[in-house]
Amino acid sequence: MNTETTIDTPVLLVEEPEEGIALLTLNRPRARNSLSEALMAAVSKALDGIASRPDVRVVVLAAAGPVFSAGHDLKEMTAHRADPDRGRAYFSDVLGTCSAMMQRIVRLPQPVIAAVEGVATAAGCQLVASCDLAVAGAAARFCTPGVHIGLFCSTPMVALSRNISRKHAMEMLLTGEMVDAQDAARFGLVNRVVAEGEALAAALAMARTIAAKSPLTLKIGKRAFYEQLEMGLSDAYRHASAVMVENMLARDAEEGIGAFIEKREPNWQGR
Q1: Considering the entire predicted model, what is its pTM?
Q2: What does this protein do (predicted)?
């Protein structure tokens, strides 16, 4: 497991609190869970390990401390302005690493649920937007504040604009203002808002519901969802129809339909 170079505390906690559920907890509370190189590497490594595990059906992503994530570690990045190229190569590498981590979440076979308490800003907001689902505590807040420091949140924009309406996305990106949990739900950035401090419990409850489904069906459905989003309407329908035919021929679909007709619980085999 990756650790910061200056301390012994793991930057990411990886647990399995219940059968079929993996819990990843960002663990840099003193640094506002900013996405350091070590933290991004740890998240990416954990996701790569989970991707090949059929026994893990859902992933919950949470954070230790009062802040979900303050985005990139600006101290780490600023230190490289003294490089001969003023940090160009380093910035490119770090942003590429972050983008790859976000895409790992989207491409992970298992659904990922963000449990958000406190503030999620910049790449932290991008992280929430990259997850398939999100639950927010009532005091959670979200923003893309780059414009305040002369740095447009261009990479967070990619995930944000694929979650919420254009005008809401542009409002967040151009003003840099905080959005409260209720508005985040109204915008579509989070699925639901629960009492402060209850986001993790609610996310685990949602994960429990999803984990009871066929793991093959979850994998097929998540992949098809993101694939068809990038297509025109006709191509999307053709693709979805082809996916559904293959899904219908799977053992779990046959079992699920049979169980429904026979009024019994299905026995999923993941094939």
Answers
A1: 0.93
A2: May play a role in fatty acid biosynthesis and insulin sensitivity.
Determine contact, residues 163/125, Cβ cutoff 8 Å.
no
Tokens of 56: 């893990």
Q: Where are the domains of the chain?
A: 12-211, 215-262
More confident of the two residues 113 and 86: 113
CATH fit for domain 12-211, picks 3.30.70.890, 3.40.190.10, 3.90.226.10, 2.40.10.270: 3.90.226.10
Pairwise pLDDT comparison (176 vs 87), residue with the higher score: 176
Decide: 104 and 47 in contact? Cβ < 8 Å.
Answer: yes
What are the structure tokens assigned to 109, written together? Answer: 């076979």
d(CA 162, CA 89): 28
**Residue type at 116 in one-letter notation:** V
Yes or no: is domain 215-262 CATH 3.40.50.300?
no
Distance CA 42, CA 248 (A): 37
215-229 vs 233-248: helix crossing angle, rounded to 10: 170
Residues 115, 25: contact at Cβ < 8 Å?
no
Instruction: List the structure tokens of 260.
Output: 């429904």
Query: pLDDT for 182-201, tens place per residue?
Result: 999 999 999 999 999 999 99
pLDDT digits (tens, 9 = 90+) for 36-67: 999 999 999 999 999 999 999 999 999 999 99
For residue 260, give Cα distances in angstroms to 127, 147, 220, 263.
37, 53, 20, 5
